[in-house]
Each structure stands twice: as C-alpha cells, then as structure tokens.
Amino acid sequence: MDAIADLSIILKYLLLGLFQGFTEPIPISSSGHLVMLRDILNLQVELAGLSFEILVNFGSLIAVLVIFRKDLIRLTRNGLRYIFQRDRDSEATADFQFILFLIIATIPTGVLGFLLEDYISEQLSKPIIVGYTLLITGAALWVIRNLHGKKNDGDLTIKDALIVGAAQAVSLIPGISRSGATIVAAMLVGMKRETAFRFSFLLYIPVSLGVTILGVSDIVNDDKFSALLIPYAIAFLASIIASYFALKWFANIMAKGNLKYFSFYCFIVGILAIIYFL
C-alpha cells in the first residue's frame, strides 16, 4: 500500500510539474492552473509551503535562459561594452538602453509583490477567483488579437517600460497570465509582436531569479522538503522540459498572430472553473 501511495504522489507531482511548465510561458496563467489543479488533486497539505512553487518556477526559468541565451549573451556583451568603452556604437547604445528598460519594468512587480504578497496568497489564491481572472486574461488577449505594432527594440521609451512593468505586477494575481499581461501591454503601447515577445520573456528572468533567490530560505526551512525530495525533483525536471517546448510552440503561434485561440481557452476554462468551484 505504501508503494502505491508513493507512486500516486509521484504521478501527481509529475502532472503538476508538467502543467506548471507548460502553462508558464503561454498566456493562460500557470499560477492559476496550479491553484485549481492542486485543489482538484487534493494536494493542499503537501503544497502548504512555497518550496514547490519556487522549484517549478526555477525550472521554467532555466528553459527561458536556454532559449534566449543568444539575446542574453549579446545584451551582456554590449551592455558591458557601453559601460567600459568610450567608443560606443549604435548597437551597444541600443542594447544598454534595452537593459535599462528591463530594469525599470521590473520595479513595479518588486514593489507590489513586497507590499501585497500576503494578501494575494491568502485572499486571491482561490480557485473560484482564478475562474474570474481567467476571463479577464481572455478578454485582454481578445482585444489585441489583430494588433500589429511598429516599435522595435530601439524605439521603446521609459513610459512603455513602466506600462509593461505595471502589467506584470498585476499578473501576481493567479489567473492573470504574466506572459499574457506583459504581451498585451507591450502591443497596446505599439510594440511589434517579436519585440513584445522578447521583452516579455527577458522581463521574466529578473523577476523569476529574484523569487528563486528569496525563496532559498523557504526551501531550507521547509520540513516537508526532504520527505518530498523525489516528487519535487521529478516536478522540477518536468517543468524544465515542458516550459522549453511550450515556449518554442508559443513563439511560433505569436509570430503567426494566433493569440485568439488562447483567448478562447481562457474563456472556456474560466467559465468551467466558476461553475465547478462555485
């Protein structure tokens, strides 16, 4: 019986890792799906701490770093070249400016997360609320489904960065997709799809890295961590693999301008969640 129970737990965490990893990059809210799925699978006790969320989000971060490694290397090289060399060409200047905008866009999330983290986790992380917030995500994606922006990386402004950063801060609420909110905001301020996509996921990196670093103490002090080490490890690996392929798939959909399908999905799942959890 113990072996069967252990296998059941492992399968549940595998499913959770795959779900979180797959839903993290695409605009349907990974946090919202995790809230609903852990309720349906009756994992409220096992997931009482933050260790699981931190680990699977770190898995998604690894996938994003791998896919955007060329952009990160170029931005780092040109950013350092801009700072330490007097002869600054247009490429170095543009990339340094892009880095500054990413930093500026990160600030609203850090401030809101610091001020409202407890309220969000205690009051807004409920399956029924996720149903309603998924409808909001679906409506936002529907609004920008046919937009074609004109702004490239070098055309962005501080105002653009702050607006996209504010959208990311709102996505701390489960059911409001982070990628969806930032891409919607980016396209509303006039960014091209490619620029909006890149800015959204490069913006994900500092926020996710910050959450991971701040969450190390939670993992160290988690009494259940050692007992659930194997299920956690499986979920972690599953989130890396699922995030990688989901992001590749989403990049293709984004290039073709088919965001309306994610809008339909959010509407359907949101309505079903409201009916089920009401």
UniProtKB/TrEMBL annotation:
Q: Name one Pfam family in it.
A: BacA
Similarity annotation: Belongs to the UppP family.
Q: What is this protein called?
A: Undecaprenyl-diphosphatase
A GO MF annotation of the entry reads: undecaprenyl-diphosphatase activity
Subcellular location(s): the record lists: Cell membrane
- What does the UniProt keyword field contain? Antibiotic resistance, Cell membrane, Cell shape, Cell wall biogenesis/degradation, Hydrolase, Membrane, Peptidoglycan synthesis, Transmembrane, Transmembrane helix
Q: Name one GO biological process term.
A: response to antibiotic
- Tell me which species this is from: Virgibacillus pantothenticus
Q: What Enzyme Commission number does this protein have?
A: 3.6.1.27
Q: Which InterPro entries match?
A: UppP
**What does it do?**
Catalyzes the dephosphorylation of undecaprenyl diphosphate (UPP). Confers resistance to bacitracin.
- Other information: Bacitracin is thought to be involved in the inhibition of peptidoglycan synthesis by sequestering undecaprenyl diphosphate, thereby reducing the pool of lipid carrier available.
